[in-house]
Structures are given as C-alpha cells and as structure tokens.
Amino acid sequence: MRGTRAVALLALGSFAMGTDAYAMAGLLPAIGSDLHVPVSLAGQSVTAFTLCYALAAPLLSAVLARWGTRTVLVTALVVFVLANAGTALTGSYAGLLGTRALAGAGAGLFTPAAATAAGALVPPERRGRALGLVLGGMSAGTVLGVPLGLLVAGHSGWRTALWLITGLGTVALLGVATRLPAVRGATAPSLGARARALARPRVAVVVAVTFTQTVASLGLYTYLEPVLRRSADIGSAVPYLWVWGIGGVCGSLLAGTLVDRSGRPALLAVVLLGTLGAALLALPWAGGPPGLIMLPLLVWGAVGWAFVVPQQHRLLGGDGEGGAAAIGLNSSATYLGGAVGSALGGLALARGLDARWLPLPAAGVACAGVLLHLTAVRVLARRTADPARTTGRTTGHAKGTGAADATAAEALERNAP
What we know:
The protein has 417 residues and is mostly helical. 83% of the residues lie in helices and 0% in strands.
C-alpha cells in the first residue's frame, strides 16, 4: 500500500507535467495578445520548453544521478513549480521564454526519474501497472488538465491557468518530499551508455524515425488553436483539444495489446506513422461540415500517442543499462522533435503561411519518416544478408548456405527498424 501511494504521488506530478506541456497550445493567442507578440513568436515558448526538456533528460539525469532518486524528484519539482510561477508573473516575452525553458528542464528531469522510482517502489509483478500509472498521468493531463486549464483561462485569464499548474506541482512536491520512501537500485544511464546506444544502427534508426514523428505531431499541436480557427468555424478550441486527448489515451492503451498480438512492433510503428500523415493531410479540408474535423483530430491523437509504445518495445532489446539508455534517447528525440517542429511552424507562420495549411508540411514530415523507415529496412537487410551469403559460399555446401540465409533472416528480424 505504501508503494501504491508513492506511485500515485508520482502520477500526480506527471499529470502536472502533461497539463503544462500541452495546455500552452490553447493559451498562445491570449499570451501573445497580453505580451504584444504574434502567435508565431509566442509559440517559441513551447520550443523553449520542449528543447530544454530534451536536453535536460539525458544531461541532468546523468549529472545528478549520485544525488539519489528522491532528491532528484524533489529538485525537479521545485524547479518546475518556481518556473511556472515565474511564467504566471512575467510581463515580458524574454521572461516568458526563460521561465518556459526552466519549466522544461524541471519536467525533463522529473519524468524519467519518476518512471525509474515507480519501477523500484513496487514488487516486480506490479511494476507494469506502476509504470502505466505514472506515464498515464501525463496522457491524462491532456484529457483532463488541458481542458480544465483552458476553461480557467477563458474565465480568469491565461495567468490563472499557470497558477493552477503551479498548484498541482506544489501538491506533488509536498507529497514527494514528505511521503516518498527512499528509492534503492534506481540509477540513470550514463552519457557514455547513451552514446554507445546511439552508435548502434538499429537504435539510431528508431530514434530518427521517432524524431520525424514528433516534428510532425507535437510540432503541429503547438499551433492547433490557430489551425482550427482557420480550418473550421469554431467558438472554442477546448472540445477539439479534448477529442485529441481522448484519442491519445485510447491509442496509448490499445497499442500495447496490438504489439502483443501482432508480434511485429516495427510494422505497427510504420502503419501508425503513415496513418498520422493521412490524418494531418485531411485536416485542412475537414472543416466544412460541422464536427467533421473532430475525426482526423481523434485519429491524430490516437496514433500519435500509440506510436511511442511499439518504438519503446523495439528498443527494449538492450539489456540493463543499454536498454535504459536507448529508451532515454528515444524520449529525448521525442521532445527534440517537438521543439524543432514548433520552431519550424512558427517560422512558417511568420513568413505568411496561412495556419489552415500548416498541417500539410507536417504530413510531409510524417511521410518522410515512413520513407526513412522503409529505406533503413532495405539497407539493414542488405547489410546482414551479404556477409551471411559470403559465409555460405565459402563452405561449398547447400546446407551451409541455407543455414547462412536463415541466420541472415534472423539478423534482419532482430535489426529491422
């Protein structure tokens, strides 16, 4: 019971992180108006958050690993709470960027440490549920936290929404500081382990494909509110963001079952990425009939969140620190892609692109990810098959050749991105 309560505190922290990360997309117009900057510039606050999240996860986790997991979690929550309070109080664009960067660093430090702590606080037979609860807290933030934050912002202003997030973080901070037991046996992978993991072709390809997916998905999500207003006649973006979040929760819950039943996470990942591209491609033309635009939003949310499950499954082939390092790299690629996508989206809007058409380049990036995946499959197949065929020829026996070909096929199955 003690471990369950501790995991619930970690899930509350993840809920605050998810709300903070995704609510900003609906607050950008109000923030831009208040600080007298266009939405394209206000969107760079999301770039600052996600970029620092991507950098903080590997760097700070490795540097602070000797502090102990509980100390790292408390430090991350202190930084997160102070940064969000700073965002709520800021009166300048520079202050907005600085505080959002600091909040991203706190979130990037908290999330992997929370997942590590959750796995260490419960018995092995309950570890999967504990991890699901902590990671589910972040996706729940998109379904409950984001609409709640936007409703509060609609009545009391965007700063009140930031105070709400600050309050959630404060409750999690007090709980973790006073109720979380000591966490033993939980260590973050070193920077050297991450570098060695990235040097493996299979890991590098998976991480690169994840990067393209998040450039398309999270990058476009930053500007979803102006995209919706230009594509459809909507009064409030809240119901549409809610639909996107509901799709995300459903997708993340169903993806694990699909991976287990199919046994082919690589195929599932490329299908999800292609479906994402199709959903984004449909957005500019789905705004005519009332409510129709919710369909591609639902699909986008579902496949966008589901995509992470087969990707992580493919990276768990590494043992011990190697597997953890690969997962850490994939997490960093996720938020680095979001940072690059939001930066490019803001640049496109600043150069005069109508927000209605912003989903089209995002869909193009998703399609590029599919091509990268398929090309890598072919290259790795050739790389693993050629040495095996050479070995088979040198034996001079048909049986040897058949065994070599079988070995090549097995290697391809292991290395297929």
